[in-house]
Amino acid sequence: MDGVFLDRPNRFIAHVDVNGTVETVHVKNTGRCRELLLPGAAVRLEVSDNPKRKTKYDLVAVHKQELGWVNMDSQAPNKVVGEWLSKQEFDLVRPEFPYGRSRIDFYMEKGEQLDASAYLDHIEEGGETFAVSGITSSVEGTSESEQQSTASKQISMENIEITSKVDTEKAGVYTVNYHYTSEETGYDCNANLIVVVE
Which of 87, 131, 150, 194 could form a disulfide with 136 if both were Cys (CB 3.0 to 4.6 A apart)? Predict the structure, then answer.
């Protein structure tokens, strides 16, 4: 359902104009998002599946002229990644994996040796998504035109610098760093993979 953002009294709720009626809605992102949630901005709402809740709607997306529709559901990225991981050839995938006093978004196991390139699927740069050639997979729910668009924006794995000091023979927590510098914009793109060896 579409609406128009009016204001945000606190980080949990917002007021949205829905067909001339002001609705109090739940914001599924506790970040400030001041550059996105501006009075008059078009927003997308979802009806809550909990009939006992005080707010009927969830604010899940906002439209920004320079970017288009921007996700506001802070849980959505992990849901999408979890869906994609479940279709890969991992021996084990566990979300919200506890480690010490922290939690890792996803814990994966794949054989006894680490192939760092197998864990990198896409790179985001300036709001655009670029597929890493040779190891990409489409996420269910992505339209054919979106898949073709992403497929046309390929980055070769040869252009990505991987720094890994993972020792699969020694228990510990390791970090794999992926680094890519865009030839077109000069932007540096970085991602880290946390590897737990038990």
Answer: 131
User: 124-163: b or e for each residue (b if 16 or more CB lie within 10 Å)?
Assistant: ebeeeebbbeeeeeeeeeeeeeeeeebeeeebeeeebeee
**Alpha-carbon distance values, 56 to 46, 52, 67, 70 (Å):** 9, 9, 28, 21
pTM over 0.85: no
Tokens 């204001």 correspond to 7
| DSSP state string for 45-104 | EEE-S-TTSS-SEEEEEEEETTTEEEE--TTHHHHHHHHHHHTS--SEEEEEEEETTEEE
Strand duo 57-64 + 21-27: pairing: parallel
Sign of CA dihedral 125, 14, 61, 59: positive
